[in-house]
Amino acid sequence: MSTLEVYFRDTHCARLTENATGTLQFQYLDSWLEHHRIPVSLTLPLDRASYSHEQITPLVANLLPEGDNLRSRLEQLLHVDKKDDFGLLKAIGRECAGALSFWPEGQSPNDQAQSYSRLSLEEFQEWREYAHQQPFRFRGQTLRMSLAGAQAKTALYFDPLDNAYLPGNGAPTSHILKPNIQGCLPGTVYTEYLCMELARAVLGKDEVPQVDIWQNCYRIRRYDRQKAYANLRRLHQEDFCLALGRHPAQKYESEQQPEKLLSACFGLLDQLGEQDLVAAPVLERQRLLNQVVVNVLLHNPDAHLKNYALLLRDNGKIQVSPMYDALCTYGLNFSATDVARAQGAGPAAHTRNLSLWIGGANAIDQISQQDWAQFAIECGFTAAFVRRRVIDLAEALRDALESTIGTIIEQHPLAEPAANAVREGVTQQINMILTSSKRP
Fold it and tell me: pLDDT tens, 312-361?
């Protein structure tokens, strides 16, 4: 039997075990149950009973990198089978999304002081050059962190002077960085940066994390890390894929039999509200609605269940997280190389197909007023409310589009090809919305 010690920040909260047949079991510690109100996951409520393999595997899978390409790289580096989720988490689970870390039996984040080592620009540039082959390697060593998703990326700590540091001994990171997806034109770095800046202009700075370009990579400040005096404090979060008890492969709507996954997300918020776990259910529902609509307006068909998340506060209250991973796929062209296909964000990355249907619509550029009305009913809104909100956001984005793009091109002239594609795709979406949902 092999055991992983589960820590919430620096507090031991649970144990995850694997027996000789590969069966997993999870159990909270009595000390955690007696003094804390927050679960490791909404799928694992606080309880003295142990959780079975079927109940725990969504948590483990959703914390790990996705896709055969990244998994194969980890297998080569760590000599752990790419299908062995427990083994991978054991190897790289020191820094995960949210407040959790996973340590081999007998080890803890308190054994050694968390540390950071200064990273030179030359060292980062070397990583960027080989990121698609070795995204987990710096200075010949493998970072012990787990970043979910299928795209090559890394996480670093940046000090107030914007110097970059590698984390050591499970130290938290402040930013996530992504290089361009290989073989994709125009570049995804500027495209995602533009989209997130547009989202900030429409929704506000509190609703969308700070983003910028650093060393030709897209950089986003982690919303699940909070400055606490001279240190970073981990905030707990989980995406809706995990919150609904689904595996990463189930983050998309089934084309054969649509499951109304957005309705399930709003239904989960309602259920949590009924349990008095959401401080302001109406506001959180609107926050999630805003993100869904803005993703449509930004021509982001790949917005799936792992692109919407919940923050689990220490007081036991839950709220929708800030928006992230907004990428306009209009005009993006992926090369036919195996590497490019493996680096793609998902099956919707270079198609019009919606990862999550809007009413009866499964194509992002063919959403009618009737589809929004159906979506509203399925998600517990009135059709009139959703219609008003969709129009308001479309008009706000239209008003912010040219000034935001102009500012970014002035600061980053190389962003112009991406800006032209984003402008065309977003304008198409705005026109579709305002034409099909005209005010009376």
Answer: 998 889 999 999 999 999 988 765 444 344 444 333 344 689 999 999 99
Per DSSP, the three-state class of 199 is: helix
Tell me how many domains the chain contains: 3
pLDDT tens by residue, 92-114: 999 999 999 999 998 999 888 88
CA–CA dist 363, 401 (Å, integer): 23
Q: 207 and 93 in one domain?
A: no
Separation CA 18–CA 89 (nearest Å): 12
Spatial separation of the C-alpha atoms in residues 433 and 309, rounded to whole Å: 25
Distances (CA, A) of 164 to 126, 177, 234, 401: 14, 11, 19, 32
What CATH number is associated with residue 389? 1.10.1070
pTM value surpassing 0.90: yes
148 falls within a domain: yes
Residue 262 in any domain: the answer is yes
Same-domain status, 206 and 275: no
* Host domain of residue 140: 115-221
DSSP SS3 for 217: strand
* β-sheet with 100-104: strand ranges across: 24-28, 11-18, 2-8, 100-104
